[in-house]
Amino acid sequence: MKRDFTQRFGFLVNDVAKLYGEQFDRLARERIGLTRAQCRLLGALAMHGDEAPMSQAELAQRLDLSAMAVGGLCDRLEAAGWIRREASPTDRRVRHVLLAPKAEQALDAALNLSDGLQTRALARLSTAERAQLITLLGKAREGLMSLAAGDAK
């Protein structure tokens, strides 16, 4: 018996994320010279802000990547001048990762790409439907986060 998963929440969310990610990756490579993973890393640093430097280990945890994967991303981004790494003054095993000034332009370009892609992806929705979709996805995320918090107890 053939099964149809196309109307199931998990399938749809994963499929949309995969398709969106593939399109973003292609556009980012072409227009900015960065991969989606590199943009995610820069975005995580930007969202963290300047209050305290983020270590590579913290960055790996935030991105849900291995320390080795983040190390490789950081190597490439540092060589290209997008980030800089500094040794921790209190722990010689820790390297802090900081955005280089030129990363701000890349982040602006990535956000513009994302906005354009979102507009095209949601073109069949009205303005009200777009706002409702974002609100509903936010509520679904909150529900999943509360489940995860309950599992941690």
Structural class: mainly alpha
Q: What is the terminal separation in angstroms?
A: 40 Å
Q: Rounded to an integer, what's the Rg over CA atoms?
A: 18 Å
Number of beta-strand segments: 3
User: Which whole number gives the mean pLDDT?
Assistant: 93
Topology diagram in text:
Layout (H helix, E strand, L loop, with lengths): L8 H23 L4 H13 L5 E2 H8 L3 H13 L3 E5 L7 E5 L2 H20 L5 H26 L1
How would you explain this protein's 3D organization?
This protein is mainly α. Helices cover 67% and strands 8% of the residues. It folds into 2 domains: 15-121, Arc Repressor Mutant, subunit A, CATH 1.10.10.10; 126-153. A 3-stranded antiparallel β-sheet has the order 1-3-2. Helix 1 packs across helix 5, helix 2 packs across helix 5 (102-121) and helix 3 (56-63) packs across helix 4 (67-79). The chain is globular. The N and C termini lie far apart (40 Å). 12% of the residues are buried.
Describe, in short, the structure shown:
This protein has 153 residues and is mainly alpha-helical. The protein is built from 6 helices and 3 strands, in the order H-H-E-H-H-E-E-H-H. Strand 2 and strand 3 (95-99) form a beta hairpin.
List keywords for this structure.
single chain; 153 residues; mainly alpha; Arc Repressor Mutant, subunit A; three-stranded antiparallel beta sheet; 3 strands
